[in-house]
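Quick check before the chapter quiz. The format below is the same one you will see on the exam, so make sure you can read both the input and the output lines.
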Amino acid sequence: MTREAERGKVGSSFDDFLQEQGTYEQTTEQAVKRVLAYQLETVMKASGINKVEMAKQLKTSRSQLDRLLDPNNDNVTLAALSKAAKAVGRTLHIELQ
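Here is the expected output.
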């Protein structure tokens, strides 16, 4: 084993791997959407808000809400996410890094 391997410097970070594969941006976007969908559903459950009530608060259909909560559907607008966050008493924060 080399000294570099012994010090734990073999390979690269997962981010580096994704960048090398050309999938970093897409993977990051999907991960963010999945986390947001999970957070919305968690807050809805904790607040006792079912999908029918949430759809009414958002003034939208249940099927549209299902698309918003679908972790694999990344065609969601910031306005829709912000409105959903507000409906469960939260705010949406987005930042550039």
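If your answer matched, good. The mean pLDDT is 88.
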